[in-house]
C-alpha cells in the first residue's frame, strides 16, 4: 500500500513515499508562506526521485505546525466569543483571564459568563437561562465575534449546556463555527476552556488550509483520502481536522519521534530533532513518546493537553552565529530563509549550517563561500553546539548510563558522532524526513476522557460505554469500522467524593478507512 | 526555627506569588490541591499597583487579638472545574467572627502545603487584614484535626462553610470527630468542595501552639527552588533545598488508594538494582527502599519530574515517569505521642520506624 507522508514545518516541507515498511523516496523543499506551493514542490521532487503513479497512492498524511504557528504569531485568528456556563460559580476567573494581552486582543476580548454548568454528580449548578444566553450571543455578535467557544462546568460529566447553546447558535447564525469544550479538552475547566477558545480562533484558518491542502493534493493527480496528524501520533481525516485544528498542535515532535523509532528500529532512546530554529529532545519508551507530566502552556496560554515531554534549546541549522568573546549560536535564526540568507547560499548571515559546511560535515550550497572562516571559529562554534545539545540529553534521560541518541531533522548534521552522555548516535537513513515518515506510518486515533458515576456492579457496563464512545470517535475521525481497537484505558476515582465518581480515559486506534478500490490499488508496487 | 528562618517575609505582593506558590507546592508533600488556581486568583487580587498583604508573627499581635483560619476543603477535581471565589472564603471568616462577636485581627493559614497556603493570603487580601506568618500543620494533611491546635486541645469549631451560591453553614460547637464528619458531609452536599473558616484562636494561643514562620519558610523554599540551576543534578538540588535525596527512578506500577486505605507506587532505579515503594493517599506518606523506610509522615516527601523539575502531586503520577524523590523535614517538631495523629499509623500504614541514613 503506497502512502504519501508530508511534513510542513516552519522551515522545510518534507515528503516521503512509503510502501509497507520500505521508504521508496524522500524529498525536501522550503516551506512557502502559503503552505501549498511548498507541498507542490515537494511532491514534484518525489516524482523525480521515484517514478510512481499518483493514482496509486492510497492515502496522504500531512503533519503541520501551521496552526500552532498562527497562534504563536497571533495572526490569522478569528474574532472569537468565549462563553462559559458556570454562574454563580467561577466568576472570580472569567474566560481568557490568564491569556497574554496580545492574544486576547487578537481574538477580540469577547469573554462572557452565563448561569449554568453541573456539579460532579450531574446535578445542575443553575438552570439554563435562554434569555440570558441569547442576550450574551447578541452582544458578542454585535462586537464582531465570528467563531464561538462554549464551555460549561463539568461538561465532561454532562454536556447539555454546551449542546443547547450550540443549537441556538446554529439556528440563529447558520454555518458559524462552534467549538464545544467537552469534545476538545479534559477535566479542568480553565485548561479545557483555553484549548476550546484556541480551537475556535483557528477554525477559519483551518477551513482555508483544509481546502488548500485538498485542492493541492488533487491537482497533483492524487485522489486518495487526506489525513492530518494529531498530538498523540494518530491521524484524523481532513474534514475532522477542519473542526478540531487544535488537535494538530504537538504533532511535529510526536511524528519526529515516532518516525525516528520506525527508521532506527529502536524502541527506547532519546530522539534529537534538529530543525531550522530549535533542537527538540524527547524520550521514546516502547516506541511512543514519553508524555509530559504537567500541563503544557502554548504561546503563553495554559492548556490541559497531554503533550510529549520535549525539551528544546534554541539551536538549529538556521541559527545565527556570532563571536564576540566566545561563540554564540541562536536563539535567533534565519528560519525558512536558510537558502537565501546563509553564507553557503550566497547570503550574508553566518549560520550554524555554514559552520557544518566549513568543517566538512555537510556538503550543501557553495563551500567556497565559507572557506574564509577561521578554523578556530568553526571548531569553537561546533563545540559550543555539541555542549548545549549534550546538556539537553542529560536533563531528559533518567539513567546516569549513556542512552542511544537518534538524530533526525534537517539540521542533524550539527550533532557530533560522539556526544557526551550518548552511548551511540544513530543517523538512520532518510533521517532528515523523520517527521514525514512519522505522519505516513500512523493510524487513526480517538479518545474519550470523561467522568462517570460508577454504581456498585456497574463498572463493566460503564467501561463498555466509554470504550464504545472512544471507538465511535475513532471511526468519526476516519478509521475503518471493524478495525478499531482500544489501546489504553485509565480509571482514576476522584478523591474525596462520594458516589464513586470516576474519571475514565480510553484511547483507541484503527486502520485508515480507504475505500475498497483504493485498497486494491495499494497493492501496486511502484 | 527553620533553615530559612532569617529571611522574614513582612508582606506579600505580586512579586512574591511565584516563590510562595512554588514553596507551597513542595510543602504539599504531593497533596494539598492545585496551587496554580490560588496563584491565579492572588495575582488578580494583588494586581493593582502597590497592593500587598501584611505578614505578621502571631507574637506580634496583641495577646487577645482574634485570628481565624481560612482555606478550602474538598476534592481537587471539583476545584479544577468550579474554581474558587475569594468572596466565599471571606464570607466564611465573617460568619465565624459574626458568631463569636469582636473584631478580626488577622487570617491564619490552616496548612502551609498546597493550595491552602495561598488561599489564606487571598482571604486576607479580600478582607484587608494581615495574614499570620505560621500555620497549623507544617505541611498538608487531609484531616482537619491533624493540627498543632488540636494537639494542644483547641477545637476547630466554631467553624463555617460557604458554597458557591453563598449557602452558609455555621457549626457553633463540635467534637473533633464530629467536626471532621460535618465538614466532609457539608462539602459533599455543596458539590464536593467548600470554603472553610475554623480554629478561631487568640494570638496568644497561636503564638504558643501554632507552627511559626511557615509563610517565610515557604517563600524562602520556593525562592531556592525557582533560582536553582536546572542543569545541576538531583543531589545539588536536594542540598539547595535542605532536603535528603531519597531515590531516583522510574514509576513501574501504581496502585491507587481505595476506600480510605493508602495506595502505593513502585519505582525502579535506572540500573534496575533497587526498588522503592512510595505510599500515598491524597499526600505522599512514606518512602521505603528495599524494605527500609527512609521517610514517613510528618516528613514531607517531594516527587520531582526529571526533565522539567516540576513537583508532581500524587494524582499526577503515571507509569513510566522518571522521578526524583526528596525528603524535607517537617516545619514542626511534633511532640512524642502524636504518631497516631500525624504519623504513618494515622493512615493505616504499619511501617518499621523511619531510618534516617
From TrEMBL, chain B:
InterPro entries attached to this UniProt entry: S-Me-THD-like_C, S-Me-THD_N, S-Me-THD_N_sf
Pfam families: S-Me-THD_C (PF20906), S-Me-THD_N (PF06032)
Domain S-Me-THD-like C-terminal as annotated: residue spans: 176-354
Gene3D superfamilies named in the record: CV3147-like domain
Annotated S-Me-THD N-terminal domain residues: 16-172
Protein name: DUF917 domain-containing protein
Amino acid at each position: 500500500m503506497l502512502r504519501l507522508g508530508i511534513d510542513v514545518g516552519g522551515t522545510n516541507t518534507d515528503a516521503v513515499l512509503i510502501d509497507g515498511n520500505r521508504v521508496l523516496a524522500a524529498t525536501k523543499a522550503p516551506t512557502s508562506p502559503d503552505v501549498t506551493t511548498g507541498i507542490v514542490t515537494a511532491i514534484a521532487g518525489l516524482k523525480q526521485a521515484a517514478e510512481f503513479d499518483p493514482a496509486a497512492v492510497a492515502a496522504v498524511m500531512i503533519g503541520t505546525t501551521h496552526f500552532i504557528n498562527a497562534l504563536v504569531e497571533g495572526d490569522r485568528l478569528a474574532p472569537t466569543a468565549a462563553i462559559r456556563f458556570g454562574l454563580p460559580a467561577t466568576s472570580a476567573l472569567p474566560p481568557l483571564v490568564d491569556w497574554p494581552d496580545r492574544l486576547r486582543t487578537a481574538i477580540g476580548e469577547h469573554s462572557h459568563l452565563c448561569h449554568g454548568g453541573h456539579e460532579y454528580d450531574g446535578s445542575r449548578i443553575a438552570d439554563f437561562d435562554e434569555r440570558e444566553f441569547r442576550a450574551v450571543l447578541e452582544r458578542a455578535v454585535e462586537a464582531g465575534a465570528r467563531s464561538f467557544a462554549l464551555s460549561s462546568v463539568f461538561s465532561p460529566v454532562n454536556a447539555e449546556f454546551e449542546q443547547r447553546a450550540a443549537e441556538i447558535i446554529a439556528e440563529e447564525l447558520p454555518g458559524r463555527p462552534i467549538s464545544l469544550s467537552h469534545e476538545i479538552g479534559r477535566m479542568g475547566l480553565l485548561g479545557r476552556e483555553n484549548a476550546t477558545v484556541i480551537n475556535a480562533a483557528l477554525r477559519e484558518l483551518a477551513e482555508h488550509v483544509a481546502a488548500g491542502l485538498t485542492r493541492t493534493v488533487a491537482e497533483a493527480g492524487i485522489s486518495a483520502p487526506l489525513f492530518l496528524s494529531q498530538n498523540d501520533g494518530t491521524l484524523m481525516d481532513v474534514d475532522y481536522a477542519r473542526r478540531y485544528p487544535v488537535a494538530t498542535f504537538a504533532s511535529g515532535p510526536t511524528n519526529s519521534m515516532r518516525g525516528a523509532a520506525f527508521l532506527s528500529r529502536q524502541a527506547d532512546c532519546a530522539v534529537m530533532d534538529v530543525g531550522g530554529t530549535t533542537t527538540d529532545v524527547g524520550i521514546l519508551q516502547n516506541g511512543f513518546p514519553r508524555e509530559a507530566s504537567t500541563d503544557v502552556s502554548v504561546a503563553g496560554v495554559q492548556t490541559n493537553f497531554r503533550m510529549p515531554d520535549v525539551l528544546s534549546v534554541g539551536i538549529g541549522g538556521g541559527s545565527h552565529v556570532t563571536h564576540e568573546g566566545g561563540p554564540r549560536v541562536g536563539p535567533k535564526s534565519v528560519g525558512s530563509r536558510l537558502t537565501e540568507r546563509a553564507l553557503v547560499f550566497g547570503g550574508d548571515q553566518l549560520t550554524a549550517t555554514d559552520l557544518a559546511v566549513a568543517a566538512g560535515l555537510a556538503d550543501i550550497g557553495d563551500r567556497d563561500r565559507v572557506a574564509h572562516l577561521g578554523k578556530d571559529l568553526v571548531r569553537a562554534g561546533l563545540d559550543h553546539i555539541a555542549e548545549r545539545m549534550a546538556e539537553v540529553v542529560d536533563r531528559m534521560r533518567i539513567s546516569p548510563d549513556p542512552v542511544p541518541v537518534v538524530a533526525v531533522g534537517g539540521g542533524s548534521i550539527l550533532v557530533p558522532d560522539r556526544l557526551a552522555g550518548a552511548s551511540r548516535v544513530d543517523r538512520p537513513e532518510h533521517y532528515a524526513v523523520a517527521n514525514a515518515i512519522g505522519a505516513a506510518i500512523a493510524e487513526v486515533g480517538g479518545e474519550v476522557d470523561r467522568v462517570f458515576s460508577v454504581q456498585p456492579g456497574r463498572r463493566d457496563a460503564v467501561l463498555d460505554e466509554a470504550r464504545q464512545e472512544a471507538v465511535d470517535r475513532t471511526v468519526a475521525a476516519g478509521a475503518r469500522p471493524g478495525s478499531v481497537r482500544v489501546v489504553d484505558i485509565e480509571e482514576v476515582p476522584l478523591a474525596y467524593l462520594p458516589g464513586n465518581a470516576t474519571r475514565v480515559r480510553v484511547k483507541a486506534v484503527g486502520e485508515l478507512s480507504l475505500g475498497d478500490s483504493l485498497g486494491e490499488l495499494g497493492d501496486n508496487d511502484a | 526555627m527553620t533553615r530559612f528562618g532569617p529571611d522574614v517575609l513582612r508582606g506579600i505582593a505580586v512579586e512574591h506569588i511565584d516563590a510562595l506558590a512554588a514553596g507551597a507546592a513542595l510543602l504539599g508533600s504531593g497533596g494539598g490541591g492545585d496551587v496554580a488556581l490560588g496563584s491565579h486568583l492572588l495575582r488578580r487580587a494583588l494586581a493593582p499597583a502597590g497592593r500587598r498583604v501584611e505578614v505578621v508573627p502571631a507574637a506580634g499581635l496583641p495577646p487577645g487579638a482574634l485570628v481565624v483560619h481560612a482555606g478550602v476543603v474538598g476534592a481537587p477535581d471539583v476545584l479544577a472545574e468550579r474554581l474558587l471565589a475569594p468572596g466565599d472564603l471571606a464570607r466564611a471568616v465573617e460568619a465565624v467572627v459574626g458568631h463569636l462577636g469582636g473584631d478580626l485581627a488577622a487570617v491564619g493559614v490552616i496548612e502551609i502545603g498546597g493550595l491552602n497556603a495561598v488561599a489564606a493570603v487571598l482571604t486576607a487580601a479580600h478582607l484587608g487584614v494581615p495574614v499570620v506568618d505560621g500555620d497549623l500543620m507544617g505541611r498538608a494533611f487531609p484531616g482537619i484535626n491533624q493540627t498543632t491546635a488540636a494537639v494542644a486541645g483547641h477545637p476547630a469549631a466554631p467553624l463555617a462553610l460557604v458554597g458557591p451560591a453563598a449557602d452558609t453553614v455555621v457549626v457553633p460547637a463540635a467534637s473533633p470527630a464530629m467536626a471532621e464528619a460535618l465538614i466532609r458531609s457539608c462539602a459533599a452536599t455543596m458539590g464536593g468542595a467548600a470554603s472553610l473558616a475554623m480554629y478561631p484562636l487568640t494570638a496568644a494561643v497561636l503564638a504558643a501552639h501554632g507552627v511559626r514562620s511557615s509563610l517565610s519558610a515557604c517563600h524562602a523554599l520556593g525562592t531556592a527552588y525557582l533560582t536553582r540551576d536546572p542543569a545541576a543534578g538531583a543531589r545539588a538540588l536536594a542540598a539547595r533545598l535542605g532536603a535528603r535525596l531519597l531515590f531516583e527512578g522510574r514509576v513501574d506500577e501504581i496502585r491507587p488508594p481505595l476506600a480510605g486505605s493508602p495506595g502505593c507506587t513502585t519505582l525502579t532505579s535506572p540500573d534496575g538494582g533497587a526498588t522503592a515503594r512510595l505510599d500515598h493517599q491524597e499526600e505522599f506518606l512514606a518512602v521505603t527502599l528495599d524494605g527500609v523506610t527512609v521517610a514517613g509522615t510528618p516528613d514531607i516527601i517531594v516527587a520531582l519530574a526529571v526533565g522539567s523539575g516540576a513537583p508532581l502531586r500524587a494524582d499526577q503520577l503515571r507509569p513510566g515517569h522518571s522521578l526524583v524523590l526528596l525528603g524535607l523535614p517537617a516545619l514542626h517538631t511534633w511532640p512524642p505521642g502524636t504518631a497516631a495523629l500525624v504519623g504513618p499509623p494515622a493512615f493505616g500504614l504499619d511501617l518499621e520506624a523511619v531510618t534516617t541514613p
